[in-house]
Amino acid sequence: MTLILQISDTHFGTERPPVVEALVELVARQKPDVLILSGDITQRARPEQFQVARKFVDRLQISRVLTIPGNHDISLFNLGARLLSPYEHYRRHFGPELEPELDLPDLLVLAVNTTRRWRHVDGEVSTGQIERVAKRLAAATPQQLRIVVTHQPVAVSRVEDMHNLLHGHAQAIQEWAASGADLILGGHIHLPYVRALHEADHALGRPIWAVQAGTALSHRLRHDTENSVNLIRTPAAGAPAAAIADVERWDFDPATVQFVVQEQHCLNRSGYGAA
């Protein structure tokens, strides 16, 4: 079994110190094997914000780390930097690869850079990116949980968030589902939820879920939610053959100054369960 911690929209520069410490404590307790940071690492893509973010990630001491930039990780006000070197500070602190991959015996994670220098907020996935990911998914083994990570969501839970949908999401969902994707992770809208995409579109033909993370650390809370993160577990040895993954949402509790379990979802090939 592999334990994955998904955090998103940390927005360093707006982080809440008690929440930072609570997340460090959660990691020490749960000991995840993999960290996925699904974009908007910083608030304004400033070098000092990336530096603080890097120190935080290092402090967690998680051996495998996969990150992607979000729209906030490209300079907003420095137009020269945005046009000529939009990922300079991101790459300096999180490495040159904008679309990293993680390949383990029970897990395949494929990251997609959905930011564009000509888009301020919206995200986009190109036909080339969709096809690249689909080809790699098709080469996965049956034992692997297959995860794709984007920053902007491929599915939303509220009509008000429709404008935040990833441009190209419909084609991406269809091709990635056909190629074997199990989960599509995202962030961006600071609203955590799990959505069964195959229930909304029966033509997909197989179970596939959108798993959204809220803002992990920022005071920029929305929709009456608290800071939250996701823990995702691949099936343990001896688990039922239909098992795909368990997804837990952990919310910050101001009363105890800790992250606590808020929701649990047991995802399987025959349907969808919530505990």
Structural key phrases:
single chain, 275 residues, alpha/beta, seven-stranded mixed β-sheet, six-stranded mixed β-sheet
Overview of this protein structure:
This protein is of the alpha/beta class. Helices cover 24% and strands 27% of the residues. It contains 7 helices and 13 strands. The strands form 2 sheets. It has a 7-stranded mixed sheet. Strands 4-5-6-7-9-8 form a 6-stranded mixed sheet. Helix 2 (47-60) packs parallel to helix 4 (88-94) and helix 5 runs parallel beside helix 6 (169-178). The longest helix has 14 residues, at 17-30. The protein is globular and about 45 Å long.
What's this, in brief?
The chain has 275 residues and is an alpha/beta fold. The chain has 7 helices and 13 strands. The strands form 2 sheets. Strands 3-2-1-10-11-12-13 form a 7-stranded mixed sheet. A 6-stranded mixed sheet has the order 4-5-6-7-9-8.
Order of helices and strands: EHEHEHHEEHEHEEHEEEEE
Terminal Cα span:
20 Å
Instruction: Tell me the helix content.
Output: 10-25%
Would you count the extended β strands for me? 13
Radius of gyration: 17 Å
Summed over residues and divided by their number, the pLDDT gives a mean of: 93
Spatial strand sequence of the major β-sheet = 3-2-1-10-11-12-13
Strand content: 25-35%
What does the largest sheet look like?
7 strands, mixed
